[in-house]
Each structure stands twice: as C-alpha cells, then as structure tokens.
C-alpha cells in the first residue's frame, strides 16, 4: 500500500515507520502524502488509540529531501505548494485527535526535529543527535521549529539551537525538555511500548480534550486558557467515559472506557 512508509497496528497502537533508510528517512512529497493517508485512516479507526512515529535504520528523520527541493525551487509556485503541504502535515500531527509519540531511534535533524516537535511525546535513544541544522546551510526553519521549539525549551535555548545549527544528544534533550525520556538503545522499544500501552488504557476522549486544551492554551493568555478549561471540563464530565471513570472509582475497579 505504501512505498515510503510502513504502517502496522495492534493492541490499540498504530506504528508509522518512515521507510527511506537509504536517504536517512528524508521527507519527500510522496512520504508526506503517505504519512497523511496513514494518519487519516487511523483517525477513523476506532481500534487505534495511539500513534507511534519512528524511522527505519539508524535515522529518525533528517528533514526535507534536499534533492527534491532543488527542483522545486525552480518554480516559486511549486515552492509555496510544497511549504504549505509541509506545514499542513505538521499541523495535522500536532492536532491529531489521538496521542502521538515520536520514537527517536537516531538522528533527528532539521525537519526531522520539527516532526518530533509536532508529536505529543518523544522518547529518544541517549546518543541520538537532535538539532535544527538549517542555519548550517543558510536556510530558515520552515516546518515549525521557530514556533514550537521556543514554546518547548524556552526562547534562549531555542535561539541557540536555531542560530548555531548545532545538535545535542538524547540525554541533553531530556534535560532541557526537548524529549520526555532518553534511554539506552536496547531499551527504546520496551519504554515506548510501555508508554503507548499506558495511553491505550486511558480515555481517548479525555486525552483528546486535554490535548486540545494544552495546544490552544499555549496560544492564549492565562485567563482565556483557564476559561477554556472550565467549559471543556463541564462538557466532558457528562461524557460516557467520565461517568464510567467516576463509577469505577466508587466501585473500586478499573474503568472500561468506550469513547472515541
């Protein structure tokens, strides 16, 4: 079904693997299209509650395929279409109505870093290389780093990474909050699986609501954010999952969430 990615599902988890190891999983237009197709199918699939995104081989993703970009640059209209498609994919992942985890198995640079920033959570191997290297080639980060990175790690740290084009390892990425956890390579699968399974056992409805509140709240002042939370909670407390959770608590049993 796919040429540039692999997708499989099981036990509530959808696993999307970038499958261009010979190009260090660089993103070309076909890869972007296939990512969107897999995610749109997953959005409709009630059996999938969590998405894990990773790369095949020694790289997570090194960003845009610059060989393809060279040809695109010959036509300004093509460049605009490419950038809009690129941004649309990142926004779709950021606002995807189910939890997403970046499984960073190696190098995550430039657009690869931006791909991980669009995910909700990230787990990296401790010697992964993470950075936005656009500056090294006289380029500007065009997939969200200038917007998402400072919100995640702070303005000064983000500027340092953006302006210098340098990279950091997984351990430092965890220290500054760029990833949730940095683990030895031989523990990556077990840690990601445990995290994903935990999320599978949570209410999809509650996760979706909290994800929306966090994303919208980061773009609003604190008073607006609190009000959004108030009204969302009032609506959510009457959902089937919320009522089931309260019953499970009073009956001292595990909740059985059925919401989508």
Keywords:
11 helices, 17% strand, 2-enoyl-CoA Hydratase, Chain A, domain 1, 4-stranded mixed β-sheet, 2 domains, Lyase 2-enoyl-coa Hydratase, Chain  A, domain 2
What does this structure look like?
This protein has 260 residues and is of the alpha/beta class. It folds into two domains: 196 residues, 2-enoyl-CoA Hydratase, Chain A, domain 1, CATH 3.90.226.10; 47 residues, Lyase 2-enoyl-coa Hydratase, Chain  A, domain 2 (Orthogonal Bundle). Helix content is 49%, strand content 17%. The strands form two sheets. The chain has a six-stranded mixed β-sheet with strand order 1-2-3-5-7-10, sandwiched between helices. Helix 1 links the parallel strand 2 and strand 3. Helix 1 runs parallel beside helix 3 and helix 3 packs parallel to helix 4. The protein is globular, with a radius of gyration of 19 Å. The model has no long low-confidence stretch (mean pLDDT 95).
Summarize the topology.
Layout: E1 5-10, E2 13-18, H1 29-44, E3 50-55, E4 59-61, H2 66-72, H3 76-94, E5 99-104, E6 107-109, H4 111-118, E7 121-125, E8 129-131, H5 145-153, H6 155-164, E9 167-169, H7 170-175, E10 181-183, H8 188-200, H9 204-217, H10 222-236, H11 240-250
Parallel strand pairs: 2-3, 3-5, 4-6, 5-7, 6-8, 7-10
Antiparallel strand pairs: 1-2, 8-9
